[in-house]
Design goal:
Elements lengths: L2 E6 L5 H9 L8 E8 L2 E8 L2 H10 L6 E7 L14 E3 L2 E9 L2 H10 L10 H13 L4 H11 L2 E9 L2 E10 L4 E4 L4 E4 L2 H4 L5 E4 L5 E4 L4 E4 L5 E2 L4 E2 L15 H7 L1 H12 E2 L2 E2 L13 E6 L1 H18 L3 E5 H4 L10 E7 L5 H10 L5 E6 L5 H4 L3 E4 L12 H20 L5 H12 L1 H9 L2 H11 L4 E6 L3 H16 L2 E6 L16 E5 L6 H12 L4 E7 H7 L5 E5 L7 H20 L17
Parallel strand pairs: 18-19, 18-20, 20-21, 21-22, 23-24, 23-25, 25-26, 26-27
Antiparallel strand pairs: 1-4, 1-10, 2-3, 2-4, 5-6, 6-7, 7-8, 8-12, 9-10, 9-11, 11-15, 12-13, 13-14, 16-17
Helix pairs in contact: 1-2, 3-4, 4-5, 8-13, 8-15, 9-13, 9-17, 13-20, 16-20, 17-20
């Protein structure tokens, strides 16, 4: 969840490290620090809060050196304090770490028996102290790091820097991503290619269990069994790593506005006329008996939406589960089951663990990701990119709609192959889908109306979202977006569940957002709206023109969207949910792109 960068360079690395860490700010963090080796001496600087605090510190307390490591920390073990910030240093070794060391208490007890004391509450300090201990036993730097890594349980991406060694970094990954960048007489390490983009376009991704010994001119990689291996060097295009706001106030606003463009690009990559093209060997739905879909957060709501599509359009039974619960209940994987995993980053720890649980049990493992080189993509039999481009805002927007797009295409493919849909109906739906980017542009023009409603929502302490059918997962997503970035308590329910408890919360202070296009379930949803209004509740209705006319004049606020076929409504209705959350957060003055306590890539359980 944190950001790592390392540099063995020809220039002073402190400013390079800070600039690289700025490119990782989107991941979310609460402290930052760097360590360098200068004239053989290892030193560090750390600060709590935003990177500007570290930059200010470096002005007053400069840190020289042409070899260094840096880190942005999202607190797990211990509060966000300077002492808990990375890099952690123990004698002649400094360490930066993403992930969680699960056996750190056991290792702390062992180290305490050897006379070592602890200055932090973190699990990472244990790694540094254990490496120091091995160095004190006479091992060289590589051996000390290897002995330390052999003792660690849990997930980690680690980079080691040593006193007296200004041409050596050691990197290792297990369950958390790490990449090595190749320069001209320089070498780099980063959590992902984005951090390294200004430095190099040649990247080597470490595989699960890899250890890398890095100097300015050499890279030696050994796999989890200690065998010397070659990992490919991949060329990263500049456009794939460009991070800028393009004139928008926030990344989230830019990414909401990009949705018509990225959706069109994604459609072009998957459609050839009326044929849905999948990469590689594709996917044959005729032999699939059941689909198990697993994800977290927003991606989980995309899967819930897709469950309606697969079951209604293709008659394919679907199980949807939260990744953090899936593997621990040890669900039976029956013959004929395809397991599908959805993750924006492709590194989500719980989703990756669930994928590995399904290995050898499911007939086929499929993933839907935004990062083709991610761990989840590489460990899948078939990886389907969503083509959303880099998403910097922590609250997912364009990745969500692009996930829905790929899932809908899969459902349409399944419907035709399973004999549940005629080619003519598929052609009709695909035609509407091709026109959807233009409809999204029209929906974006509703922004002033949504902004007005958001200013009113911003005054509330609690908000309810309601939806039926395909709108139920969208209500869940709308509530998540609002709570993520505005910090307003929001909950979502299937509209029919209102009478089974949530109606007790209704009064004039609780706005109720109802997502309801004029579809076959609309009249039932209107009945639920009447129940809310009869108790003084304020209804914000998101619907189409026909729905607005049928709902009557008593609705508190109405947002009218273009009319689309009901099967496409989740993709369209995601936009007002996102804009409502965005403008509410702006009205409240919260940090839209980096909301408190959240991280973009959740690489710990």
């Amino acid at each position: 969840m944190c950001g790592i960068v390392g540099v063995l360079g020809d220039h002073e690395v402190a400013p390079i490290l800070v600039e690289a860490l700025k490119r990782l700010e989107y991941r979310g963090y609460d402290s930052a620090g760097i360590a360098t080796v200068n004239d053989g001496h290892l030193d560090r600087r750390r600060a709590v809060g935003k990177l500007v605090n570290l930059s200010d510190l470096l002005v007053h307390e400069p840190l020289a050196g042409k070899a260094g490591i840096g880190h942005t920390r999202w607190a797990t073990h211990g509060a966000p304090t300077t002492s808990n910030a990375h890099p952690h240093k123990a004698g002649p070794v400094a360490v930066v770490h993403n992930g969680i060391i699960e056996n750190y208490r056991e290792l702390r007890e062992e180290l305490a028996q050897h006379g070592y004391s602890f200055a932090t509450q973190t699990d990472t300090e244990t790694v540094a102290l254990l490496t120091q201990h091995h160095l004190a036993q006479g091992l060289n730097h590589v051996q000390a790091a290897e002995h330390t890594l052999a003792r660690l349980e849990g997930a980690f991406a680690l980079v080691f820097l040593f006193d007296g060694e200004d041409d050596l970094m050691i990197a290792a990954r297990k369950g958390s991503p790490l990449a090595v960048g190749h320069g001209d007489g320089e070498m780099y390490v980063g959590s992902d290619a984005i951090a390294l983009a200004p430095l190099t376009d040649r990247i080597t991704y470490l595989a699960e269990g890899d250890r890398a010994i890095i100097t300015r001119k050499t890279l030696e990689i050994r796999d989890k069994d200690g065998r010397l291996v070659n990992r490919p060097v991949k060329l990263i295009h500049a456009d794939a790593t460009r991070v800028d706001k393009a004139g928008y106030k926030h990344f989230m606003a830019k990414e909401i506005a990009e949705q018509p463009t990225v959706l069109a690009d994604a459609l072009n990559s998957y459609l050839d006329g009326d044929t849905i093209r999948l990469p590689g060997d594709g996917l044959d739905f005729t032999g699939i008996e059941r689909l198990t879909m697993v994800a977290c957060g927003t991606a989980f709501y995309a899967c819930l939406t897709a469950k309606y599509w697969f079951e209604q359009l293709a008659g394919l039974p679907v199980e949807v589960d939260v990744a953090s619960e899936f593997r621990y209940r040890e669900p039976p994987i029956t013959p004929g089951t395809t397991a599908l995993f959805v993750s924006q980053s492709g590194e989500t720890a719980d989703t990756l663990a669930a994928l590995r649980y399904c290995e050898g049990k499911a007939e086929q493992i499929v993933s839907i990701v935004n990062v083709p080189e991610s761990s989840i993509a590489r460990e899948s039999d078939l990886a389907l990119p969503i083509h959303a481009g880099i998403e910097v805002g922590v609250a997912s927007t364009k990745a969500f709609t692009c996930q829905l797009n790929v899932l809908l295409l899969l459902a349409l493919k399944a419907a035709v192959e399973r004999g549940r849909m005629t080619p003519e109906t598929r052609t009709e739906i695909l035609s509407a889908l091709r026109g959807l980017p233009g409809v999204l542009n029209i929906a974006l023009d509703r922004d002033p109306v949504i902004q007005k409603a958001a200013r009113l929502i911003a005054e509330a302490r609690d908000v309810l979202f309601l939806g039926r059918g395909l709108m139920y997962p969208l209500a869940l997503e709308g509530a998540l977006k609002l709570k993520e970035i505005s910090y307003i308590h929001a909950e979502a329910y299937a509209s029919g569940e209102l009478k089974h408890g949530p109606i007790a919360l209704i009064d004039k202070t609780v706005p109720v957002v109802v997502m309801a296009p004029r579809d076959t379930l609309f009249d039932k949803t209107v009945s639920n709206m009447q129940e809310v209004m009869a108790r003084g509740g304020k209804v914000l209705l998101i619907t189409d023109a026909a729905g607005a006319a049928a709902a009557g004049q008593d609705v508190w606020q109405t947002i009218v969207l273009p009319e689309v076929p009901s099967v496409l409504s989740p993709i369209l209705y995601a936009l007002p949910a996102q804009l409502l959350a965005y403008h509410t957060a702006v009205a409240k003055g919260t940090d839209v792109d980096q909301p408190r306590n959240l991280a973009k890539s959740v690489t710990v359980e």
